[in-house]
């Protein structure tokens, strides 16, 4: 057996190790130096791959994990040896694709900007992946020559594996990068049941002991909060794979626990893609994350959370210009990527902080910045720009590498004959070598390119512990089995002995315990299938993926009781039941499915959930018939029997029906006071009886409502009544001999109310943009949800079914706010006005009598359209529309009036101050021959209407120069277009005429709102900027700047208002 470190031997980075055993060459990892340039052709970035040719080539490649310092050179190895298969765990293969794709992008940018030759191209990477073979974590493969390779969890990052190799020449364990402690995402390593002759072990922190992780996490989160509270940004450069996910979760967790304030958390760079990859492998994550993802959640980016991805480069400037925030970005050493950009912008401001939490290479910018932290006059070059270091710089120990003590403990546990230390600098390797030598371990620390030769004699100990399947201690009767594995028998043998009762087992170990020497790959597969399907006897250990633990005897006994209960309830689906939820409250539910241990039920305010059999309190009676609801021939889920098809539709209908039913039950329930009911049952002097029997004995009205109320009361007050239950029989109830001296407290709600954000999300789903729902409110004291529609009357009729469904699904009492949205009422008038009709003033809203009046110029011959307009407005808004047609003939039809008055229309309202630019001339006060004021008003209105102007108000004003008439247009810019006409009218009337210098802000915003396409998704009110003469809108789906519809709207707003229109895409 021979070993050679081509790279990563006497250094951290460019890990590349060749193992010769049993006449084959096995390459373990092929990375690059992260201090070097991944985009360049510099040989400093690569291990010495030429040594592979001298050694006779490569027969197979094994990958420990997906960091670039372990995979960055794989495409070059594949180009030289295209026939060699590449083995890695499934998540490592997934992550390799992400990281190598990012490396290709960086190389492409460098090639264009700096004319550097890339190491490889996309075609080579694609060809390489055709030779990549994913291996299950905890599984094994057989290489040519009979070398068997085991993949043991390494605990470093998602998918990281220790590689155990066993052949005729001996056994080797290559650790790759390892972490002993549990992280927030993955569990730490478990020492494998593998006795290596040779241990090739990393030594990154061979001369260090890690600080307490919980204390470091708490201090880091506190530092970030402190920086943000002082008005600065906190940048956390993090490795995109592993560290970044940990930082996101720990800061968010501290916020959720209330330990630090709420503030934005921005995530930038490749971190976003890696987070998505984690969602693809929940089975390899720790229990809480696994459950959260399996329930459809995203632990990194919540819909309503504070963690937000930076989705485009231009957004980075907005992040820096925005509110103080925590920024988590790659790369972790500031060698490139978004973190270098942010650092270059933040480093010269003492309010900001740059916080490191991982390994820093000696040549990296991160290491240089840490060295300069205490030098007040120091400068650093980041992104080609030299900047003075004035920000706060800190480092915390959240490493995913094992420390010196953990490495020594692993070596002591494995007891190898030889230890080879790699992946560490000289100081770390020497310190760890001394520690191991003190424990009588033969330790070697080779230089890159140095061959090591080994020869191991296979003794009795080695033969007994060569693989996980060969345990010497085996519970049981001493004979090997050949039949299918029986989980009950295997479990019974394990829990019978204290020494095996609480141990963790892999599937391979359990297979060996069952089959012993007769174990075959087929038998191992049968045991794996047994563990996958078994729910009673063995449970996957959430702290340690790929391991199983025998369940406790009390847990197994509980499941046996559940089975006996469910066996007596074969026809439970379709029944109305009472159950006790996890919080101890009695709730009504509709059973829609069962399995061997419990049942599934819909409840008001909660989604359909599984309940253990012992939570069932009472079967009230039939609710629906599964045979009638189910579609013929529809397949059922394997674990759920009797589940209706089109579940979402059926669930909504049934929950609405249950909601209405419980409103009736509530009335009866309140009449059955606990103490009065106890006295009546005691006076009967009767033994234990079922709910149906007590209904008859107490003379209560027969019916499902009364039966439900009585059963609810009997189960809800254990201090008054007892319950006896035997599987297969009806529950029996009896009153207690004594009751509490105090009366029972107030009755609790009969339904659960959905969490507020979830309830509001249901409302958003039920009512789309077309519904006009613009606001929602929750009153926790009354349990009411209020819906605010633009037009509440029509909405309550049109969406009555959805409103009822909202109450049934969420458990909140839903009401519709009765008042219409005034802005929407005015917008509706403008939308419905026929072409050519000229609106002469703002619509007037009369909220007391639900009436809207408008004054508009109706073209001759179109008076009959007014009746259709009034009818359409009533249907749309539920309000009466009154149209005034000044100077025209009377218009027939209800609600349409004519009016000839031309006085103050009550529009925008002017101001007394006058801008000199708004005066038509220097005329001071009316002349001696000036018209009577109302005649002057009418003359001005008529003259401007003839010129095509829309006049909102004409009124008399006074200043130091005397009286004058002020004309209000939608904006003074529009008024300036009619200066010539105004000059003529001034001469005609004898009155000074001036333009109102203030714009009609409400009218301009209303025009903008009505011009927006529904598909663009207008958010909130348009922003109004008078000085800039601009209106800005925020759109969810902003059209491109050259979109014809958008250009037409911009042109229209400019023509009507004199203002420019801008949009922001959110």
From TrEMBL:
<dbReference type="GO" id="GO:0004521">
    <property type="term" value="F:RNA endonuclease activity"/>
</dbReference>
<feature type="region of interest" description="Disordered">
    <location>
        <begin position="465"/>
        <end position="485"/>
    </location>
</feature>
<feature type="domain" description="Beta-Casp">
    <location>
        <begin position="244"/>
        <end position="369"/>
    </location>
</feature>
<keyword id="KW-0378">Hydrolase</keyword>
<feature type="compositionally biased region" description="Low complexity">
    <location>
        <begin position="465"/>
        <end position="478"/>
    </location>
</feature>
<keyword id="KW-0540">Nuclease</keyword>
<dbReference type="InterPro" id="IPR050698">
    <property type="entry name" value="MBL"/>
</dbReference>
<dbReference type="Pfam" id="PF16661">
    <property type="entry name" value="Lactamase_B_6"/>
</dbReference>
<protein>
    <submittedName>
        <fullName>Cft2 family RNA processing exonuclease</fullName>
    </submittedName>
</protein>
<feature type="domain" description="Metallo-beta-lactamase">
    <location>
        <begin position="13"/>
        <end position="233"/>
    </location>
</feature>
<keyword id="KW-0269">Exonuclease</keyword>
<dbReference type="InterPro" id="IPR036866">
    <property type="entry name" value="RibonucZ/Hydroxyglut_hydro"/>
</dbReference>
<dbReference type="InterPro" id="IPR001279">
    <property type="entry name" value="Metallo-B-lactamas"/>
</dbReference>
<dbReference type="InterPro" id="IPR011108">
    <property type="entry name" value="RMMBL"/>
</dbReference>
<dbReference type="GO" id="GO:0004527">
    <property type="term" value="F:exonuclease activity"/>
</dbReference>
<dbReference type="Pfam" id="PF10996">
    <property type="entry name" value="Beta-Casp"/>
</dbReference>
<dbReference type="Pfam" id="PF07521">
    <property type="entry name" value="RMMBL"/>
</dbReference>
<dbReference type="InterPro" id="IPR022712">
    <property type="entry name" value="Beta_Casp"/>
</dbReference>
């Amino acid at each position: 057996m021979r070993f050679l470190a081509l790279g990563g031997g006497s250094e951290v980075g460019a890990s590349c190790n060749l193992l010769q055993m049993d006449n084959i060459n096995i390459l373990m990892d092929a990375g690059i130096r992260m201090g070097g340039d991944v985009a360049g052709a510099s040989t400093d970035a690569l291990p010495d791959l030429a040594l592979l040719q001298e050694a006779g080539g490569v027969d197979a490649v094994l990958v420990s994990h997906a960091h670039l310092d372990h995979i960055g050179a794989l495409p070059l190895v594949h180009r030289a040896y295209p026939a060699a298969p590449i083995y890695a765990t499934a998540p490592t293969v997934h992550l390799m694709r992400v990281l190598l794709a990012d490396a290709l992008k960086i190389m492409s940018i460098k090639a264009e900007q700096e004319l550097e030759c890339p190491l490889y191209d996309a075609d080579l990477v694609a060809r390489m992946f055709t030779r990549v073979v994913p291996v299950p974590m905890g599984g094994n493969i057989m290489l040519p020559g009979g070398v068997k390779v085991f993949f043991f969890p390494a605990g470093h990052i998602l998918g990281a594996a220790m590689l155990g190799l066993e052949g005729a020449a001996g056994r080797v364990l290559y650790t790759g990068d390892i972490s002993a402690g549990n992280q927030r995402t993955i569990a730490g390593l478990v020492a494998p049941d593998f006795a290596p002759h040779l241990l090739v072990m990393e030594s990154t922190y061979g001369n260090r002991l890690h600080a307490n992780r919980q204390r470091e996490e708490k201090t880091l989160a506190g530092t970030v909060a402190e920086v943000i509270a002082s008005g600065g940004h906190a940048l956390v450069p993090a490795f995109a794979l592993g560290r970044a996910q940990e930082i996101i979760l720990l800061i968010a967790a501290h916020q959720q626990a209330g330990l630090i304030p709420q503030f934005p958390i921005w995530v930038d760079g490749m971190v976003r893609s890696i987070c998505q990859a984690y969602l693809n492998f929940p089975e390899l994550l720790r229990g809480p994350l696994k459950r959260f993802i399996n329930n459809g959640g995203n632990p990194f980016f919540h819909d309503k959370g504070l963690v937000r991805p930076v989705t485009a480069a231009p957004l980075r400037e907005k992040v820096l210009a925005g509110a103080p925030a925590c920024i988590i970005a790659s790369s972790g050493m500031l060698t490139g990527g978004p973190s270098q950009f942010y650092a270059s912008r933040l480093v010269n401001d003492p309010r900001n902080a740059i916080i490191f939490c991982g390994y820093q290479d000696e040549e990296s910018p991160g290491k240089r910045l840490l060295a300069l932290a205490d030098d007040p006059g120091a400068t650093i070059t980041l992104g080609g720009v030299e900047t003075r270091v004035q920000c706060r710089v800190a480092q915390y120990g959240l490493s995913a590498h094992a420390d010196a003590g953990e490495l020594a403990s692993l070596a002591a546990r494995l007891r190898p004959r030889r230890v080879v230390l790699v992946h560490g600098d000289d100081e770390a390797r020497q310190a760890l070598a001394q520690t191991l030598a003190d424990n009588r371990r033969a330790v070697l620390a080779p230089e890159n390119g140095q061959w090591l030769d080994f020869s191991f004699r296979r003794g009795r100990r080695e033969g007994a512990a060569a693989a996980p399947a060969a345990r010497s201690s085996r519970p049981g009767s001493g004979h090997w089995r050949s039949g299918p594995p029986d989980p009950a028998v295997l479990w019974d043998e394990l829990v019978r002995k204290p020494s095996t009762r609480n141990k963790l087992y892999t599937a391979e170990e359990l297979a060996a315990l069952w089959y012993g020497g007769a174990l075959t790959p087929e038998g191992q597969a049968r045991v794996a299938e047994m563990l996958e399907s078994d729910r009673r006897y063995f449970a996957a250990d959430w702290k340690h993926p790929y391991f199983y633990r025998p369940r406790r005897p009390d847990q197994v006994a509980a499941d046996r009781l559940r089975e006996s209960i469910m066996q007596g309830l074969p026809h439970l689906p379709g029944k109305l039941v009472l159950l006790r939820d996890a919080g101890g409250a009695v709730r009504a539910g509709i059973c829609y499915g069962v399995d061997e241990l419990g049942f599934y039920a819909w409840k008001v305010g909660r989604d359909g959930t599984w309940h253990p059999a012992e939570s069932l309190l009472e079967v009230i009676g039939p609710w629906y018939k599964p045979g009638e609801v189910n579609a013929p021939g529809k397949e059922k889920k394997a674990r759920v029997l009797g589940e209706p098809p089109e579940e979402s539709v059926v669930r909504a209908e049934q929950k609405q029906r249950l909601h209405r039913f419980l409103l009736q039950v509530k009335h009866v329930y309140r009449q059955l006071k606990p103490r009065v009911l106890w006295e009546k049952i005691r006076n009967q002097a009767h033994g234990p009886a079922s709910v149906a029997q007590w209904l008859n004995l107490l003379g209560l009205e027969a019916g499902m409502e009364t039966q439900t109320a009585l059963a609810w009361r009997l189960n809800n007050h254990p201090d008054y009544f007892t319950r006896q239950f035997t599987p297969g029989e009806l529950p029996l109830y009896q009153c207690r001999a004594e009751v509490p001296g105090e009366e029972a407290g107030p009755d609790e709600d009969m339904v659960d109310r959905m969490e507020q954000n979830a309830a509001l999300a249901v409302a958003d789903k039920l009512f789309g943009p077309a519904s006009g729902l613009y606001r929602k409110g929750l009153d926790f004291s009354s349990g009411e949800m209020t819906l605010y529609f633009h037009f509440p009357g029509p909405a309550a009729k049109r969406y009555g079914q959805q409103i009822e469904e909202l109450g049934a699904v969420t458990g909140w009492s839903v009401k519709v706010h009765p008042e219409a949205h005034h802005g929407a009422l005015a917008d509706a008038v403008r939308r419905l006005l026929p072409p050519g009709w000229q609106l002469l003033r703002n619509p007037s809203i009369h909220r007391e009598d639900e009436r809207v009046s408008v004054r508009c110029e109706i073209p001759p011959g179109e008076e009959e359209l007014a009746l259709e307009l009034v009818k359409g407005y009533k249907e749309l808004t539920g309000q009466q529309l009154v149209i005034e047609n000044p100077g025209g003939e009377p218009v027939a039809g209800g609600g349409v009036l004519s009016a000839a008055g031309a006085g103050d229309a009550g529009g925008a309202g002017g101001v007394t101050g006058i801008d000199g630019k708004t005066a038509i001339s220097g005329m001071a006060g009316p002349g001696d021959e000036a018209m009577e004021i109302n005649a002057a008003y009418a003359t001005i209105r008529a003259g401007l209407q003839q010129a095509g102007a829309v006049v909102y108000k004409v009124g008399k004003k006074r200043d130091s120069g005397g009286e004058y008439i002020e004309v209000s247009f939608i904006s003074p810019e529009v008024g300036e277009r009619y200066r010539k006409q105004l000059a003529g009218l001034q001469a005609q009337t004898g009155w000074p005429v001036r333009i109102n210098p203030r714009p009609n802000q409400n009218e301009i915003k209303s025009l903008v709102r009505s011009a927006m396409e529904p598909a663009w998704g207008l958010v909130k009110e348009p922003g109004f900027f008078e000085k800039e003469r601009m209106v800005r809108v925020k759109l969810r789906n902003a059209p491109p700047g050259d979109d014809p519809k958008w250009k037409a709207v911009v042109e229209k707003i400019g023509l009507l208002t004199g203002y420019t229109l801008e949009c922001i895409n959110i």
